[in-house]
Amino acid sequence: TECVTKTIHWITGNNFTVERGQQQIEELISTWRVHESCLHWSEFLHEEELEDSKRYHYRACWSIPTRRKPIPRATASVYFIIEISKTKPATSPVEVFFTLESSKLVHRAEQRPFREKWLKDIIENKIRVIERL
């Protein structure tokens, strides 16, 4: 099947707010191909000041509730960073990255398609650990 990706027009550094950043992350998530049974909520975590940029950290927490188990046994988190460069013009768009919990691999938001399997693998691994305990 052909994967159609919606292009997101990222906000510029001079127009950025924490709330607008969260809205844009939700817009990005809406382009991901995940089953409607996968639910999530997102939140702003903190701001980080670096020499050449300012980073805003967010988290989206995912679960897959079912009719038999409406309270999920495990969740999977996706962490986002919105980075505003201090060296580029303020009219430049922000850069957006994401990583999955338990992974060190950092993805550029629009260069790597998100895979629902990543969420399921994290959740299934957590459930296996819980069952062993």
Please tell me about this protein's structure.
It holds the Pfam family AKAP28. One of its GO terms (cellular component) is cAMP-dependent protein kinase complex. This is AKA14 protein. GO terms for molecular function: protein kinase A regulatory subunit binding. The chain has one domain (13-131). It is 23% helix and 30% strand. It is built from 2 helices and 5 strands; from the N terminus they run H-E-E-E-E-E-H.
Q: Can you tag this structure with a few keywords?
A:
protein kinase A regulatory subunit binding, 133 residues, elongated, AKAP, AKAP_28, alpha+beta, 30% strand, AKA14 protein
Layout of SSEs?
Layout: H1 18-31, E1 39-49, E2 53-63, E3 76-85, E4 95-100, E5 107-108, H2 116-132
Antiparallel strand pairs: 1-2, 2-3, 3-4, 4-5
**N→C terminal distance:** 41 Å
The averaged pLDDT comes out at 91
* SS class: alpha+beta
- Strand count: 5
Report the biggest beta sheet as strand number plus sense, adding barrel if it closes: 5 strands, antiparallel
- Assign a percent range to the helix content: 10-25%
Which value, in Å, is the CA radius of gyration? 16 Å
- Give the number of domains: 1
Q: Please give the oligomerization state of what you see.
A: single chain
Determine the number of helices (DSSP H or I, runs of at least 4 residues). Answer: 2
Give the uncertain stretches in residue-range form. Answer: none
Label the overall shape: elongated
Q: Strands of the biggest beta sheet: in what spatial order?
A: 1-2-3-4-5
Organism: Centropus unirufus
Protein name: AKA14 protein
GO molecular function: protein kinase A regulatory subunit binding
GO cellular component, one term: cAMP-dependent protein kinase complex
